[in-house]
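Worked example 2:
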Amino acid sequence: MKTICFYFQIHQPFRLKRYRFFDIGADHYYYDDFNNEEILARIVSRSYLPANQLLLEMIEANKGKFKVAFSISGVALDQLEIHAPEVMDSFKKLAKTGCVEFLAETYAHSLSSITDPEEFQSQVHQHSKRIKALFGKTPTVFRNTELIYSDDIAELVSGMGYKTMITEGAKHILGWKSPNYLYQSETKPAIKLLLKNSKLSDDISFRFSDHRWSEYPLTADKFIQWIQQSPDSEKIFNLFMNYEALGNLQPSESGIFEFMRALPRFAAEKNIQFSTPSEVAEQFKPVEAMPVPHLISWADEERDVSAWLGNCLQKEAFDTLYSIGERVRMTRDHRLLQDWLYLQTSDHFFYMSTKRASDGAVHQHFSPYDSPYEAFTNYMNVLSDFMKRVEAQFPASVDTEELHSLLTTIQNQEKTIAELEASLKSLKNRKPATGNGTGKSKAEKA
């Protein structure tokens, strides 16, 4: 039986305010609260809330046979809890249906998997704990930022105990092969790989309302027919997309919600089911290993990481940021750690892209800056201030190994002090012995 696996990305960055050179050292708050709240409110009203309501109705109407998966970044969760708690409530309702799976990813929607394994593992663990606390289940499927994947990343993810990942069905990796099968990692065969069907996913998320598209208008019965007419051996159709495709990128007046609502009915007629990523991994066996020696993603025409690290501006910002990672992880300063997470969000590097043509238009569409050079300058000003704050706690004149030794000594002293204070409190609370009940010792009685 053929199956459709829907996965939606939900992510919103904390966009930076205009931060001048003269603000360095004087202003330690970096975020454009007004812009962030305004953008989130618009997307919530157009997409998140109506789409969540639609999916809930679809699950109930189809008696649990319609299923989807979400990967919600930690920074998106932070913003939703602050500005749109009603959206969080609607996700919790979806979670209770048992038909929605929540995936693990990096908390900051970061590029840490490329350069900083310790940071990467820390963020994945932090995100997984947050998902468990919010929705009651620990994620078992991993989805990296923007579907970034390679053999090396598979080894990191395998080391954290995950058995399934989702990534892009990049043409330069697949060659003549189809993404409509379950694959496995070349270096870690225990890792099963679900690959995005780019053509069908983009038909919904990008081409649905394009009047110039030869297949316009796209109807649910036509879409299901495409899947049904595929070779019999192709069983898995992974439709991975940004959740904003429902209602924002494709507005409600385009008919996108009606299209989604009709899919289960036409799928049932063709004996096509819906599955979550973990169900796909359980129900199917990998057909072969997929070697990916170089990084791939679902972004831009190249399907690599050039969307974030394709020019010297991006690389300088990226290298400068992660050069201080080891020192930042030593701190207990909550604000410093929070800023560290928010400054790692991949969007900051995406805004610095200097690509042209259609890919360049996409970067400009999502960027709050007039140019990639303005994005770079603003980010580096913020990063300069952040690095001064790190330097104030951990001077560059003291090497990292010595800092580790000093912090270990301090932590051990704190532990010893806490144990002694607990012992002292216990002694103070202990009641004095009363002897034989008269309050006098035997010696005094004699």
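Residues 251 and 330 are 46 Å apart (CA to CA). Confidence is low (pLDDT under 50) at residues 441-446.
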